[in-house]
Amino acid sequence: MLKIAYRKEYAHPLPENHRFPMIKYELLPEQLIYEGTVTESSFFSPNLLSEEDILAVHTNEYWQKLKNLTLSRKEERRTGFPLSAALIERERIINQGTIDAANFALEYGVAMNIAGGTHHAFTDRGEGFCLLNDIAIAAQYLLKNAKVSKILVVDLDVHQGNGTAEIFRDNPDVFTFSMHGKGNYPMHKERSDLDIEMEDKTDDKTYLTVLRENLPKLIDDEQPDFIFFQSGVDVLATDKLGRLGMTINGCKERDKIVFEHCHLNEIPVVASMGGGYSEKIAHIIEAHANTYRLAQDIYF
């Protein structure tokens, strides 16, 4: 059974002017159940992430600022969210969801988090709607508990996974691969283990060719025993923040490539949702839903 982390707090407690496109966190589970891709039994409710797991990745100074709501106005603006205790609770729930999904992936081969993909969170700061880095926290959890020995991060959000790159810069047990828009946020890029920059208006054929050329080679070279997939759909041509030129079908094929290679090589994979900011919510939901449909079809 496909296991998916979700709680109603994923869409709350954001103020009204931040609700779109965050409403996708409510609509996506409803769509997946309505169409019969999954049932309610597929969803599980994560609890609060422990401080121990937070501090395995983030600095104590930064965590205390989050915990005590003492970020400076500049630091708060950088995150893109108004700081609140409820927001910090939301972040802890989402991050625990990725850890729980990782454990389910070890059992079933694949698992998902309706939220997450918070790849702009650094060891000591948050950026770009990311406060705690769920991929990094879950990866560190797996390594610390000797559940895996080598992790590959496949970050296909349109924005570089700069926080993840910084966190694992000197860690040979985690290979960070980010395929992102060259001219997009963040303007100052960190150095991942492999960065591939795509030009504005990159179409399906060009993007998918590059992915097909690189992902199998990375798996062969690095021999990971676990993969974290940041499956942002802001690569779409309709995305307000994306600047690439991909279609919904092209984005679906991207996800299919990732899941099929994980399945073929028997590498457990967790997919975190990542970004998606198209003008029409229907485009966002359809593109994200394809990720879950493919996981269900390929694995179950």
UniProtKB/TrEMBL annotation:
It comes from the Bacteria. Belongs to the histone deacetylase family. InterPro entries: HDAC_classIV, HDACs, His_deacetylse_dom, His_deacetylse_dom_sf, Ureohydrolase_dom_sf. This is Histone deacetylase. Keywords: Hydrolase. GO terms for molecular function: histone deacetylase activity; hydrolase activity. GO terms for biological process: epigenetic regulation of gene expression. Pfam families: Hist_deacetyl. It comes from Marivirga tractuosa (strain ATCC 23168 / DSM 4126 / NBRC 15989 / NCIMB 1408 / VKM B-1430 / H-43) (Microscilla tractuosa). Residues 22-288 form the Histone deacetylase domain.
